[in-house]
Design brief:
Subcellular location: Membrane
Number of domains: 1
Order of helices and strands: HHHHHHHHHHHHHEHHHHHHE
CATH topology: Amino acid/polyamine transporter I
Strand content: under 5%
CATH architecture: Up-down Bundle
Largest sheet: 2 strands, antiparallel
GO molecular function, one term: L-amino acid transmembrane transporter activity
Pfam family, one: AA_permease_2
Membrane topology: Multi-pass membrane protein
Structural class: mainly alpha
Strand order of the largest sheet: 1-2
Protein name: Cystine/glutamate transporter
Length: about 475
């Protein structure tokens, strides 16, 4: 009888934990791989080839940039695999800066993420989605800009709604869209490979002629390439929701980044097989131009596949980025309302909804190529800081448990290259990098007023608390009841 009583008590406890409000570990290896691939392969491979070629000056050098960007992204992903298994909290960059370099760098990363990085990234992916949906209906004429932005807003809204509704639905959506986008890449690679095998190599002859090459534009070429690889750190935002993270995070990162790098290089080879460099530079939609040349029977399908690819990247970003807000609020660096989750949906509803209007504002005012340069400086600066903090943490705590460890030489190499690109970009594009730096630095006074020493007037605090209380009731959200890290 005692045994039965104990068993019933254990069942009751298990049921209670199962029903507790928390972000659950539901992301296995396949969803984790799809989450990374789906976040990386978006609009970039269909937009960035033009920017890479324009700023590198030759076909051969542009392909070399694609390979080097893939290698650099792989090194960064491996560094983040170590960080993700060393520090088991979600939050990505923010968490690693907080644990290694302290609260101010972490807050500045959070501030820049909310103020312009995530809104800008979501905006240019949404705009790419809108362009590929609308332009086929108006070809060969230019599509109305207003209609493109309207469709972009619709796509963004649908993705935000999915992430508000269910973690499981967002995860399944990501898996589905990842398979669609990989099919799109294969549909480009195969006919390009066949044409290359038949001797269509005009674009590769004298491929390293660099008459238009300028050293000061080379960082912009890398920024466009790295933009296409952006998202390799996406899984680190949701560490607390990954099943067996010590195994699945490194494995998912390695599998996904090798796959993406090989596919990207082959896709660019296919582009140059069917188009001359001049034709590629004149194209506003590279994949569509390619399809009209190589896939005449399937040309109308390519824009749809590219649009779905953009939705997958958008979904990955909106799934992961709010977790940074969620963790920061839990650490006391953001208002507590954003550390709450929906009592039935188990989604970080306030964090997702907070980013939505910011993304809309940037979408309505931004332009794709300007947004890429604007975001890249701050994003890569903080990645370099995070890996620098990783080196410092290794030195200060050599016996700290690290289930996955990267050779120190690779970490140092990646960090040095990141800082080099960041510094050189100040010379290449001083306006966008200067604006990015200025906006990031505005977070310093905010940190000292709201976090370091809470100096808000008492009346303002009462208004804020009143607003937070009623928002909690309206959104039906509460603090997480189970510690997940």
């Amino acid at each position: 009888m005692d045994w039965i009583r104990v068993r019933k008590e254990d069942d009751k406890k298990e049921k209670t934990e199962d029903e507790a409000v928390q972000l659950r570990r539901e992301i296995g290896l396949l969803p984790a791989v799809c989450f990374i691939v789906g976040s990386v392969v978006g609009s970039g491979i269909f937009i960035a080839p033009k920017g890479v070629l324009l700023n590198s000056g030759s076909v051969g050098l542009s392909l070399l940039v694609w390979v080097l960007c893939g290698v650099l992204s792989m090194l960064g992903a491996l560094c983040y695999a170590e960080l993700g298994t060393t520090f088991t909290k979600s939050g990505g960059h923010y968490t690693y800066l907080l644990e290694t370099l302290g609260p101010l760098p972490a807050f500045l990363r959070l501030w820049s993420e909310c103020l312009f990085i995530r809104p800008a990234v979501a905006s240019y992916v949404s705009l790419a989605f809108g362009r590929y949906v609308v332009e086929p209906f108006f070809a060969p004429c230019a599509a109305p800009t207003g209609l493109i932005k309207l469709v972009s807003i619709l796509g963004l809204t649908v993705v935000v709604a999915i992430n508000c509704w269910s973690v499981t639905m967002a995860s399944r959506t990501q898996v589905t869209l990842t398979f669609i986008k990989m099919f799109a890449l294969v549909l480009i690679i195969v006919p390009g490979g066949i044409a290359l095998a038949r001797g269509k190599t005009e674009s590769f002859q004298n491929g390293f002629e660099v008459d238009s090459f300028k050293l000061d534009t080379l960082p912009l070429s890398f920024y466009n390439g790295l933009y296409a690889y952006g998202g390799w750190f996406a899984l680190n935002f949701i560490t607390e929701e990954v099943i067996n993270p010590n195994r699945n995070i490194p494995l998912a990162i390695i599998c996904s980044m090798v796959t993406v790098t090989v596919c990207y290089v082959l896709v660019n080879v296919a582009y140059f097989t069917m188009m001359t460099p001049a034709e590629l530079l004149l194209s506003e939609a590279v994949a569509v131009t390619f399809a009209n040349r190589a896939l005449q029977g399937f040309a109308s399908v390519i824009p749809f596949l590219v649009a779905m690819s953009c939705l997958g990247a958008l979904n990955g970003g909106i799934f992961g980025s709010p977790r940074m807000l969620f963790v920061a609020a839990r650490e006391g660096h953001w208002p507590p309302i954003f550390s709450m989750i929906h009592i039935r949906r188990r989604t970080p509803l306030p964090a997702v909804l907070f980013l939505y209007p910011l993304m809309l504002v940037v979408l309505l005012t931004g332009e794709i190529y300007q947004l890429i340069s604007f975001v890249s400086f701050s994003r890569w600066f903080f990645i370099a800081l995070a890996t620098s903090g990783m080196i410092i943490h290794r030195h200060r705590f050599p016996n700290y448990p690290r289930p996955f460890k990267v050779p120190l030489a690779l970490v140092v190499s990646f960090t040095v290259v990141c800082f080099f690109i960041v510094v050189l970009s100040l010379y290449s594009d001083p306006w966008n990098t200067g604006m990015s730096s200025a906006l990031t630095l505005t977070g310093i006074p905010v940190y000292y007023v709201t976090v370091y020493r809470y100096r808000l007037p008492h009346r303002l605090r009462r208004i804020f608390d009143y607003f937070s209380k009623h928002m909690q009731i309206l959104l039906e959200v509460t603090q997480q009841e189970v510690q997940t890290f």
